[in-house]
Structure formats: structure tokens, C-alpha cells
Amino acid sequence: MATVDDIRARLGAVRYPGYQRDIVSLGAVREVALVDGRARIVVAPGTAKADVIAALRAAIESAVRAVPGVADVEIDVVGAEAERTAASPFDHQAPLAGVKHIVAVASGKGGVGKSTVAVNLALALQARGLRVGLLDADIYGPSIPLMMGVPDARPRMAEGHKIFPILQHGVALISMGFFLDDKSPVIWRGPMVMSIVRQFLKDVMWGTLDVLVIDLPPGTGDAQLTLVQEVPVSGGVIVTTPQDVALQDVQRGIAMFQTVNAPVLGIVENMSAYECPRCGAREDLFGHEGGRREAEALGVEFLGELPLVAEIRASMDRGAPIVVADPTSAPAAAFRAIAEKVVTALERDARAAPIGV
Fold first, then answer.
1. pLDDT 10s digits, 94-105
2. Which CATH architecture has domain 99-349?
3. What is the DSSP string of 284-303?
4. Fewest C-beta atoms under 10 Å: which of 111, 175, 242, 306?
5. Would you tell me which CATH number, out of the four given (3.60.130.10, 3.30.300.130, 3.40.50.300, 3.90.960.10), belongs to the domain 4-83?
């Protein structure tokens, strides 16, 4: 004989579209009732997007019908009027005081150079005269301290558990790497990760920033969910490589931002081509223009391509990213061009209001 607890247990395995969190832990399930084998589920998805609601309906119905003893399923989606009084997973967002724009740099999979793009994008924006912060939200694999040349830095603490960010190359930084030694593993569960991301957002004394760049971990997990729940994201930048295995995950990253009504500023194609430093011959090791084609197919802007060159990797290992180490180089120019397109997109979404002072 089926029970309400049986149904809730099955709903706990239904993921919110685009995320790794389930609809029960998100608070999207408002009511579960069971009468004479007929189950009634009330869900508040926190969005009016038809594709998200349709996906939720299908997943909920499939999960509940699989419960032995359930003969029929009725799904009620809380509408716009009810959502004004019912809490949704994303209705407690609050802007960060003094921060004009938040740009999240994401990727569907690891190994595509997302952190390299986030660091050089932040530095290119700073070189443009903007006040910039960089938040490393990759709690399990923080790399920003090493890439920015401050692996041994330790932030100062202020009263009330507030944290002073590290200032390097003119950019304000925070990362879990500042609180760990080289051998300390991070083996926390999701709630701990979400708590740290929340603290980095709200308890760091960012001051006045034009742009806060957030380097997200790969995928669409707890850190990403906390970000979009806590603060309004001005836009997302998706990093990929030209190869098919990376492009397959681009759509998932874009769907993540679209689900929470955060605009996707565009796609960056990293490691787009290798140019021999001796003979100048170009070789497309991972394919050719896959990121551009994917952007066109998905209807988002293609922000630019970055070459596969040893100088970019070496500069990150030295803690002197190429935008500051060799600003006249071709790769640095490519990062600056991407930064210009990001600024243009942000100003367009902000009704042409200038970002800088």
C-alpha cells in the first residue's frame, strides 16, 4: 500500500532541470496527498518557463507512477499569483552591496580552461579601468591563488566574521585555496560547499566593484545553485573547447542560466587551434570552430576564440597571467577582445548604462 512518504521519497530523486539538486530539497514541492490510489502533487517551480515546467511534469509523473499502489497522478503547478505569496527556490536573491554586475564563468565539464578564462577576463576588465573582484567558487579544486601568484596569502579577518579579500594585480580575490595548505583535501558534502559559497558572497568585504567575476566549478551542482539562489547574476560566460565531447555539455550550462532567468552573455572557445612557433603552421587539434557553430545553433553570442599556446599555460603556472605578463601578445589581445564584448553585453542589458566610473 502506497504512502505519502513513499511518494516523497521518489520525488527526492527528481532533479530540478539543469541542476544536480532534487525538487524536494529545493523546496519546490509544496504538497503531497494520496487518496484511494490517486496522488496529488503541488509544485512551485520558481519559473514560468514552459520547457522547465513541462520537464518537471514529466519527471514527477514518471516517478510517482512508479510507486506501487499509485493508480493516477495529478500535478498542480503553482501559478504566478500564488508564487507571489509562496516561496520559490530563487525568490530570496539579494544584490551585493556596492557590486554593479556579477559575471559567472562556467563550463559543462572540466579541463576546458575555465579558470584560465576567468582569471584573464577579470584582469582584462581591470586593465580597462574597471573595479574588479574575482571569486573562486571551485571549493574542491581552488586554483585562483596559484594562477594569480599568491598561493601563500591568507586573508585578514574583520569583526563580525567579515573577510578582507586579497588584492593582486589590481583585482580583489577570495578562494578556498587561501584557507588550505597544499595537502589538505576538501571532502565536504553539498551543504558545507553551499555555506562556503554563501560566505564568500556575503561576508567578503568587496567594497565598490564594477564587476565581480565568479569562477564556477564544472557542471551544474551545489555551488552553482547557491550562487543563483543568493544573488542576481548579470550574465554567464560559457567556456568550451571545439571538440564534440565538450560541446555536448554547453547546452546544459546554458540551460542552467536560462532556468533562473540569468542572461547568457556568450560562449568562449578555448584551445581553438595550435600554431607552431617555428613554422607558423596552424593545426586544429580539437576540431575547428565548434564553439562558434554551437553559439549560432543555440542563439547566443560567440565571444571569441583563444589559441592553444604554451605561453598561456606557462604564465598561469608562474602566477603572472598573460594579460598582465605580456599585454602586447596575441593571446592577451584575444582576452581583451572578449572582455570588450562582455562589457558591451552588460551595458546592453543595463539599458546602455556605463559600467565604469
1. 789 999 999 999
2. 3-Layer(aba) Sandwich (3.40)
3. -TT-SSHHHHHHHHHT--EE
4. 111
5. 3.30.300.130
